[in-house]
Structure prediction request, 621 residues.
Amino acid sequence: MLDERHQSDSLLAAFPDAALVLDTTQDKVVALNAAAATLFGVDMASDRALRFSGFLGAALAKFVVFVEEVDHRGECWTRDVPLTTLDGRPLRCEIRARGVPDVAGCLLLSFTDLDAFDKRTQIAEAAELHRAGLLEWKRAETFFAELERQNQLILNAAGEGIYGVNADGKTTFVNRAAQEMLGWTTQDLLGKDIHSMIHHHHLNGEIYPSQQCPIYRSFRFEQVHRIEDEVFWRKDGKPIRVEYVSTPIYDQKVLAGAVVIFRDITERKEGERKLREALDEVAALRDRLEQENEYLQEAISSERAHHDIIGSSPAIRQVVTRIDLVAGTDATVLITGEAGTGKALVATEIHKASPRSRRPLIHFKCGSVAPEDVEAALFGHVRGAGPNAARDKPGKLELAHGGSLFLDDVEELPFEIQGKLLHALQKSTVTRVGDTREKPLDIRVIAATTHAPTDTRSGNRIREDLYLFLNVFPISCMPLRDRLEDIPLLAAHLLKLACRRHGRPVPVLTERVVQQMQAYHWPGNVRELHNVIERAAIVSRDRKLVLELGGGGQVASPTNASVRTEAEMQEMMRRNIIAALRETGGRVSGASGAAALLDVQPTTLYSRIKSLGIDRSAIQP
Ligand SMILES: Nc1ncnc2c1ncn2[C@@H]1O[C@H](COP(=O)(O)OP(=O)(O)OP(=O)(O)O)[C@@H](O)[C@H]1O
Prediction:
């Protein structure tokens, strides 16, 4: 029995809840475990005879009802019986009770401290909540990490360079394209002032203060900027041309920085530059062609192409010899002579016989352009260089590149232009008005002046240094009055051309007409002769040449030049008779014969033919 008692005490002690055995008949606590002692504030060592009613206070009646219910049901529980500790502190408990088998009036009571239980429940619930919150947080973290990864993938897959800056201008992220374009890595740039690393200078070398930078204005003043052409500087110091958009970014409506999306347009700009250059080149070529065409038209209309140098005088022979000597070289030639003596013709012949003949001879009459326009005419201009400079235009120097430049009446050039011209010719470069770029020049210069060299220098018409530069190889064209023996040949040649042009039969130059021409002093030289013949070709009828010389046909007062030797007169007559015979196909007499043309008797003509030794072979053309 003792053993049994000991066993039940041990079971009671091991019971986790507060529990006790109550003898209801004597209101006596037979046994209680440590948890019950703690709950009720009982000292197990000293409090030996414990009455259960000591824990009930005013609730004894409720407890009696409860005991009766236990009796009736065998076991029961209640939360309606308020308890107190030994020292009177109220306890809120759930009481469970069951009768002890075979011991009448004995109950086993267990107590659950409801306040402690509620506390545990709260802790359990809090723990539960905490666990659930952690899980939620983990899920959110994973979600955002995935989002971030996706965003990074998108940012890195973008072809445009993208970087972000915070409100202090410090880099917050850089995508892959930006790293590749700039050569800087994310590590290089993150947290650094990106303006000072990639945007510090303009392309022209000027410093670019960050306060002037549109990106700065984006994250400072909330402005969106779209810039079409600026430079970013690579890590290796090379610039890349970029277009970009900088947009402010906000964090909860607060300006947090800016995002910059940029594109490398270096290649595009280079392409545009090349295209512009090509178009300029095309425009220059077009201008050049237009001018060359103008030149050719002029050349054709002046019939210079059909002219050779006519004349057999020693002066003309010397001119021809000197042309032959100089044509094959690149030497500068200075042609002197009065107006109309054939200076332009000589220049043309030099060019035609030179290795440059495949390129044009550009003829510039220095006095034909207003002094203020001479510079642009010679050197060309760029668009906007003057009120009339609507587009780029090459000057005569450029047009003559590869060919020859004929500076006619060079003494008419304004003095300061002479200096500039000399500079360009010596340096073999040309710079258009309004431009700074020099272009190489490969030209041969032929100049002409109506002033004798000594006059020009003393009269200061040509700068001495330019004169020295030009006068490498002088050629002098003699006035027509000083080489009268050339008149019959020149007159016959010009008459043939004029008649062909006007569709007229060629009249015969009679000896009298030739003498008349040779007696004239020809102030306008060959040009005047050309005009006189032109008029004659128009007014002459019936093959008789009607000559209208300047000054009302006056024969010039005799000068030394108009006196002919007998031999010269004979030669002149001989040529005239041959010309007449050629015109009439060898017929001497009759209305269409040479005698009629020459206005002499046929018998006279026959005797002259004989005395001058003119035979059939002489009249073959
Ligand atoms: N020896 C010549 N043979 C043939 N034609 C000539 C000769 N000399 C001059 N002419 C002709 O005379 C005209 C005037 O010649 P050119 O224009 O060469 O003279 P210029 O000395 O250059 O005159 P300017 O100084 O007034 O410009 C042209 O039609 C030219 O072909």
Remarks:
- The longest strand covers residues 239-251.
- Confidence is low (pLDDT under 50) at residues 300-307, 455-459, 552-561.
- Residues 240 and 597 are 87 Å apart (CA to CA).
